[in-house]
């Protein structure tokens, strides 16, 4: 794909229902990671058109779980924001969707792709790809209560022998879904192998609603490959966890230096300690430090120390010690 076409993509406006996304690049839903703090960090770099929340269990939300209600927090700078819900019970899914619309979501997304046993054992996530009757009921009941756009995020099927993306695409279009986010792998693949661009291109060619391609986009080369499918937009997860400036990098062609990353981590950790109870802040700081360490020189030394940290302050101490070492080296 010519460089000029990639440049044109960054100037494109995508409309999903009445929501305008410019450029059509999405921060993916990432359990435990894409909370308000992380979304603000990613937005701060620029280049991202819309962000997704973490996956929110419709059961937990509608039963009043305190930890889940923290996931509803967002800042107006994060908009447009898509909230993703998971579950199988049409009544609870509709109720959760309404609660999120009432708290300011720009769109609701239903998770049809989560491969984790925790989610699939009760029939939600990718398990809905094996039960299209329930999938249809869930979409229909959520669509009925929403006035904002509704999207779904799918995988291709449970495994290679049960590819259902064409059927699910048709159901979605018939039931008034506004766009489909398509991670081009099966549930069985989890994250192995590589994304299948042919499936994404085929779904795009069959539907009139937007199809957003997802999987393995990390740089301009992989972005170009995804755009060659003809998809209307692109969603990124893992590359954003390791490098929250990936959208900015894709657009500008520039990278961010280690010292800038360290100041981002400092800012993020302070925000986490402000926003969450100590235990949850510690958990998230450990998680992020572990992901970020993969983009840092001698990052392994951080991961070794993290395992023994018992409080958020201890995690912060490990980070500070690392930063001092790096500062001396520069
Ligand atoms: C740690 C982790 C958590 C994830 N959580 C969710 C989730 O809550 N909801 C969802 O639809 N997908 C989730 N995904 C899948 C991503 O959104 C995305 O579809 C997948 O990682 C492929 O995109 P990538 O190659 O850009 O990472 C998660 C992926 C990872 C690695």
Characterization of this structure:
Helix 5 (90-102) links the parallel strand 5 and strand 6. The chain is globular. The chain has helices spanning 3-10, 36-45, 58-62, 66-69, 90-102, 117-120, 132-145, 165-174, 197-206, 220-227, 238-242, 246-252, 258-275, 278-292, 299-306, 312-329, and strands spanning 14-16, 19-21, 25-27, 50-57, 81-86, 107-112, 150-154, 179-183, 211-214, 233-236. Helix 13 runs antiparallel to helix 14, helix 13 (258-275) packs antiparallel against helix 16 and helix 14 (278-292) runs parallel beside helix 16. With 330 residues, it is of the alpha/beta class. The strands form two sheets. Strands 3-4-5-6-7-8-9-10 form an eight-stranded parallel β-barrel, surrounded by six helices. The chain has a two-stranded antiparallel sheet with strand order 1-2. 48% of the residues lie in helices and 14% in strands. It folds into two domains: 3-252, Aldolase class I (TIM Barrel, Alpha-Beta Barrel); 258-329. The chain starts with a helix and ends with a helix. Bound molecules: flavin mononucleotide. Residues 28-31, 54-55, 84, 111, 113-114, 153, 183, 214-217, 236-239 line the site of flavin mononucleotide.
Number of helices: 16
- Tally of DSSP β-strands: 10
What is the number of independent domains? 2
Present as ligands are: flavin mononucleotide
Derived from helix and strand composition plus strand pairing, the structural class reads: alpha/beta
In N-to-C order, the SSE pattern is HEEEHEHHEHEHHEHEHEHEHHHHHH
Oligomer: single chain
Low-confidence stretches: none
CATH architecture of the largest domain: Alpha-Beta Barrel
Beta-strand content estimate: 5-15%
Describe the strand arrangement of the main beta sheet, using strand numbers.
3-4-5-6-7-8-9-10
For the termini, the CA-CA separation is: 39 Å
- Helix content percent band: 40-55%
């Amino acid at each position: 794909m010519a460089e000029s076409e990639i440049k044109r993509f960054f100037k494109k406006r995508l409309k999903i229902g009445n929501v305008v996304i410019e450029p059509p690049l999405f921060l993916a839903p990432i359990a435990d990671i894409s909370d308000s703090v992380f979304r603000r960090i990613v937005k701060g770099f620029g280049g991202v058109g819309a962000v997704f929340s973490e996956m929110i269990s419709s059961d937990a939300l509608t039963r009043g779980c305190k930890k889940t209600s923290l996931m509803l927090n967002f800042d107006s700078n994060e908009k447009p924001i898509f909230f993703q819900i998971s579950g199988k019970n049409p009544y609870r899914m509709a109720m959760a969707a309404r609660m999120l619309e009432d708290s300011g979501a720009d769109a609701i997304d239903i998770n049809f792709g989560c491969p984790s046993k925790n989610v699939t054992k009760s029939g939600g996530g990718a398990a809905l790809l094996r039960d299209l009757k329930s999938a249809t009921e869930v979409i229909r009941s959520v669509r009925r209560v929403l006035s904002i756009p509704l999207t779904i995020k799918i995988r291709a099927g449970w495994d290679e022998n049960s590819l259902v993306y064409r059927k699910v695409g048709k159901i979605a279009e018939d039931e008034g879904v506004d766009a489909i986010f398509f991670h081009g792998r099966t549930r069985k693949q989890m994250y192995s192998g590589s994304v299948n661009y042919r499936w994404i291109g085929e779904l795009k060619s069959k539907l009139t609603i937007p199809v957003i391609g997802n999987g393995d986009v990390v740089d301009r080369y992989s972005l170009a490959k995804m755009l060659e499918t003809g998809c209307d937009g692109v969603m990124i997860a893992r590359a954003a966890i390791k490098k929250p400036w990936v959208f900015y990098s894709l657009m500008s062609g520039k990278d961010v230096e280690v010292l800038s990353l360290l100041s981002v981590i400092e800012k993020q950790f302070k925000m986490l300690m402000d926003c969450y109870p100590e235990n949850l802040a510690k958990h998230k700081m450990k998680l992020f430090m572990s992901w970020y360490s993969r983009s840092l020189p001698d990052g392994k030394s951080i991961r070794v120390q993290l395992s023994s940290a018992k409080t958020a302050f201890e995690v912060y101490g490990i980070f500070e010690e690392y930063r001092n070492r790096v500062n001396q080296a520069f």
